[in-house]
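Following the same procedure, sequence and fold were stored together, as reproduced here:

>
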Amino acid sequence: MPSIERFPLKVMRVSGLTPLLTRLICKPETLAASPVAMFVTLACVSSSVPILAVEYPTCLGCLLTPKAVTINNLSYSAGDEKSRFYLSFEDVNTSGVIPKDKNRRNTIRINGSRETGIFRADYNIGYSLTHTNTTPGSGVPFNWGTTGIPGGYAGGGSYFQNRPVYWTIINTAANIDLRRYKNWQTDPFSSPDGYFNAYYGNPWWQIDQTRLDERNSDILANLALSLKPLPWLNLQAKAGIARNDYSNKYTQAGYTFAPWAIADTLGAGNIPSGVKKLSPSEGDAVSYNQRITNDFLASAHKTFGAFDVSLFVGSSLIVNTIRLVTTSANALVIPDFYNISNRLGNPNVGEYKEETRVLGVFGDLTLGFKNFLFLHGSVRNDWNSLLSKANRSYLYPAVDFSFVFSDAIPGLQNNRVLSFGKIRGAYSKTAQVSIGAYSLQNTFNAGGGFPFGSIAGFSVNPTYANPDIKPEFSTDEELGLELGFLNNRINFSAAVYKTITNNQTVPITISSTTGFTKAYVNSGEMSNKGIELDLKVTPIQTKDVRWDVGVNYSYNKNVLLALGYGQTDVPIPNSNSHAIIGSPYPVLKMNDWLRDPQGRIIVDPNTGYPSLDPQLKVFGTTNPPTKVGINTSLSFKGFTLAAVADGRFGAVIYNGIGPDLDFTGVSAYSAQSGRQPFVIPNSSYFDPNKNIYVANTKINTQDGNNLFWANVWNTANSNYINSADFWKLRELALSYTFPKTMLGRKKIVNGLTIGVEGRNLIVIKPKDNVWSDPEFANTTGNGTGTTNINQLPPTKWYGFNLKVTF
C-alpha cells in the first residue's frame, strides 16, 4: 500500500452539543467556550493567533442551528381470550441543521385479531404521512419514494454554482460572521448585488430562495385468515399491500443583477458580471411504488412417541409496480409563479413504469428427537419475471441440524456449571437476481435536444442488454457452538462460516464497434470466510441490582475469486471503488504522487512541486473486515443505565471534503506553512550527476498559497485517504421507572417512566483522520468508502422521553 504523508497539525479538541456549520472569528478562548461537535476539520488563521485545526468552529446562533427532534406517541390496547386490538399514533417533528429545513412524520397503526372456533382473522393497517422541506444540494438529489431510484433536477445551489450550502460556507473567510448577511432582501450589502464575496453567493439567499418540498404517504396493510380443521393442521391465506405515493416540488427564484454590479469596476470577474440574469426554475415529480403479496401456508405439527414433526408447505406471489413522472422548466416567465405552464421553451419531461412478478413455492420440514436433536430442511423454487423464460425458474435448498448435548447427556443435565450446550451446523443455497426490469432487450432513448419541433430523435442505450442473464447463487456453510454457564448467567456462542457466491452479475467493457460500450454478464465469483463470537455475562444479579454485559466480535475475510471474460479489474460505477481479483471487495483505487523506490514523493528540482502518477493505486478495502461491539445495562431498583458502543477496523476512506477545504484555504493543511513556500516532507528529487534520487532538504515549493494548495496539492487523492477505523459510543441512556406505590391508589396511571439519552456521543478516530466520521459515505450502494461535500456533518443526539401508561 502506498504510504500517505500527514503533516504535523496543532489540534484543539472541543466537545459539546451538535455540529454547527457556521463562522466566527477564531480565537482560542472563544473556541474553548463554544459548544461544538467534532468531525471534519477546518482551520482558523489569524496574524495574532496560532493555527488551529478545529472541527466545525461555530458560535451558537450563527448560520446553522442545532437539530431538534420532538416525538409524541399515544397508544391504546385491549383484548380478551378471543380477540385483541391495538391503536397507536405517533408524531415526529424534526428541524434540520440548516435553517428552514424540516421534516414531520405522522403515523397511525391499527392491528388486531379475532378467533371463533376453528377460524381466526388477523389484520394490520399502518399509514404514515411525511413532509420534508429542505435546501437542496448539487443537482437537487432526491429518491423516488421507496423505490430506491435516485432522481434530480438541473438546478439547485445559489444564484451561482450548482453547489450545496456547505460549499458556500467553507468558501467564506473564517473571520466573517454570516449572521450579518441574513437580511439580503433589505440590506444592500447582503443582497446578491452587494454581497462581499465575488465568487460565492450569500448562503441566506440560497436557503430562502432554493427549496425542495417532498411528501411521502405510505400504507401497509395485511389480512390473514386461518382455518384449523384438525388439532395438528393449520391453513392460512394472507394478502397484503405496501404502497408508497411520493411527490416533490422544486423551486428556485430568479434574480436580475443591477447594472452597477454587472459593471464589475474592480475587474474581479464577479458573479453579477458572469450571470447577469438568473431565470427562475421549477420541477415536479410524482411516483408510486406498490407491492401486492398473496401467500398460502399449510402447516402441520405432530408428535410420534419421541419424535416431533413439523411440516410447512406454501406458495407466495409478489407483484411490484412502479411509475415515475417528472416535469421541469429552467426558464419561468412570471416571478414566484412556480407552474410548469409559466415557462419559456419546451419543458423537460420524463416517465417510467415497470411491473415485475415473483412466484414461489416452498416446503419446510423439521424433525425433532426427544427435544435435544433436530434436523431441519427446506426447499424453494421461484419464477422471476426479470429473467427470460429459459432462466427464470431456479431452485435453492437448505439443511441444518442442532444437538443440545446438555439435555442429551444425563451427566450434564441439571449441571451447576454448564447450564446449556448446543452444537449446530447448516448448509444453504440462496439465489438473487441483480438486474432491473426490462434489462434483457436493447432499448432506444430520446436523444439530446429531441424532439426538435416535429422531428423525433432516438439514441441506443450504450449498455448491451444481455438476454441470457441468470440468477446469482450463494452457497453457505456454517458450524456453531452455544454454551451457557452458572444458570445461564454466562452465555457464549461461536460460529465459523464460509460463503461462495458465483454467477455474479458484473459489468464488462466491450468494443464500441458493436454499437455498445458495456455489457452485464454472469461471471463473478466471491468468497467470504469468517468467525463470529458473542459473550453475554450477568456479573451481578440480586433483588435490587442487575448488571448485564455483552461483547461481540466478528471477522470476515472477503476475496474476489473471479470476474471472467479476461477481466481482472472492474471499476464500480459512480464510485472510486474497484473489483479486483485476489483482493477484498470493494477496494479503493485512486491516484497518488510519483514516488521513488523508497516511497518518497518525487518533486521537480526547479519548482519543488510533485507530479501525479499516471497509474492509479490500490489503498485498501472500504469494507471493514473486523467489527467489535460492547453493550451494558445496570439496573438499581427503578433506575436503568444502558450503553452501546462498537468499533470497526481494517478499512480505508477517501475524504472528498479534503480537497475542497484545501481549495478554499480554510483547512489546517493549507495554513500550516504560514502561506509561505516550504519543503514537502518525505520528498526527493532526481540528481542526474549521481543518477539517484536524493532526499529533498532545500528545494521549496514555488508557492505556499493558493497556487500550491488549490491547484497542486489537492489534485492527489492519496492526500485525503486515511484509516476508517473508529470506536463509537452509539448510545447512552438513563431512565427511571416509578414504583406503582407512588402512582396513587385510583390506578389512573398504571406506569410512569422518564429518561434521558444520547446517541453518537463519542467518536475515537486515528490521528490521521482529521476529516469526518468514517462511517459516513456518499452512497448506500457497493461504491462505499467516499465522502464528499454533499454530506452534512454527522450530529450528536440528545433526548428526553416520558412514557405514561393508563
Q: What stands out?
A: The first strand starts at residue 41 and ends at 46.
